[in-house]
Amino acid sequence: MMKEYDQDCIFCKIAKSEIPSKIVYQNEFVTAFEDLSPVTPIHILIIPNGHYHDLNDCGENEASLLGHILLAAAKIAKDQGISDSGYRVVVNDGPDAGQTVFHLHFHLLGGRPMNFRSQ
């Protein structure tokens, strides 16, 4: 069962269409929209429709939801024309990882070659 929306959460408000956003995909489980500060030519955020603080807020009951998020990422990558060249799906979980909005979200990144560097 999906969690309820948080009335104070900006991502919940986007999922409910209370805040305008460039939504690229939405179904009963997830909403995906363009990031306002993209770091790659394609930078889309994919969120669950329901408030999950972070990945640690998910348990076995959310396994299907997490699967829906990854399937949405693959579909969006194909729709955006980056499925063949490659893309990255990233979750920043917690402050040390760089999470700034505390609603679970996945970054779909692509449209250019990427390197991986740990700092």
Mean pLDDT score: 94
Beta-strand proportion:
15-25%
Order of helices and strands: HEEEHEE
SS class: alpha+beta
Question: Main beta sheet: strand number and arrangement?
Answer: 5 strands, antiparallel
Rg (CA only) = 14 Å
Q: Strands of the largest sheet, in order across it? A: 1-2-3-5-4
Number of helices: 2
The CATH topology name reads: HIT family, subunit A
Verbal overview:
This protein has 2 helices and 5 strands; from the N terminus they run αβββαββ. The protein has 119 residues and is α+β, with helices and mostly antiparallel strands. It has a single domain, classed as HIT-like (HIT family, subunit A), CATH 3.30.428. It is globular and about 35 Å long.
Compact overview of the structure:
The protein is of the alpha+beta class and 119 residues long. It has helices at residues 10-15, 63-79, and strands spanning 23-26, 30-34, 42-48, 87-90, 106-110.
